[in-house]
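For homework, think about our next protein:
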Amino acid sequence: MFRLAVANLVQNKTRLIISVAGVGLALTLVLFFGAIFDGAQGRLTVYIDRAGADVWVSQEGVRTMHMSESALPNSVVGEVKAVQGVEQAVPILYTEGMIEANGKDFIAYVFGVPPEAPLGGPSRIITGASSPGSGEIIIDEAIAARAGVSVGDHVTALGHELRIAGLTSGTSSLVSSVSFVWMDDFARARGGGDVISFVLVKAKLDESPATVSSRIAQSVSGTTVQTREEFASQERALVKDMSADIISIMNTAGYLVGLAVVVLTIYIATVARRREYGVLKALGVRNGRLFQIVLVQALLTVGMGLVTGVSLTLLLSALIPRFNDLIVLSISTGSLLQVTLISALLAGAAALLPARQLAGLEPVTIVRRG
């Protein structure tokens, strides 16, 4: 049955290529929207993922960076360091602000880090210093390229003019980027005070982050303590809730258009083979076997189209960042499985609908009408 389905499918190669191309382009549209969202989500928590901290300590009740502000007394750092299982505890300052360069404004998450901090500093330096000094800032290379600045030039951040000491990579997105300044500069710009935003904790090798997190929560009052995974999860959930309507509209539009094309392509391809199905019926193929052949052909077409769609999306994910570093595409396993399942189900339904109509006709009638 499988061989018969394949033989019938490849009998008209031009028709097969057109069908696979139509399905492939439609699924590329579906995968493309999902890849943009998944890529943006990955960049959303890139600082948390790369900071090197196993545990994050913030003000009580503060569980995210976005849409919140954490303020802790500097004495908390010493209290955290005294907890069993803590290897390192590094304070940082954080705010959401703007970077102005050559008359252009860019949204940035600005972090104040201690000199040569073992945690929380830039993770991927492309050029220049690996840590900002007094009067200096490290920004993302994509923002620098858009603003037309480089190491040694000056930008305005936190209300002060700062010299670019280095460029980092992989922290920018369509809406924001990450920048680093000297912690003392940050404190002065904010008005001083013995206050920090977060404490980044590195657990000892023989200790689990979850255990250390629990100990800190019990020992240090007035704080919220989360593992890196918990903190990143809270960030993603918050932004997803904030942009739920936009994401829903975008994904729904992409899915409806893309899957509608898949259904239409499979339906037309099935109807176009009605003469071949008439010949099969004339040869004695029963309706049940005919439905199986039609279904296998539809699934094979979708499978080849899916491979084409994934390949095109991967190609776009490699090419687009070369022209715009702020756009990142990432295909998640969950999205791929979802698209595969839904497209297969719809393709099967689209193929069986005309097949049921053809099955009720006499073979001679099908061949004559073909």
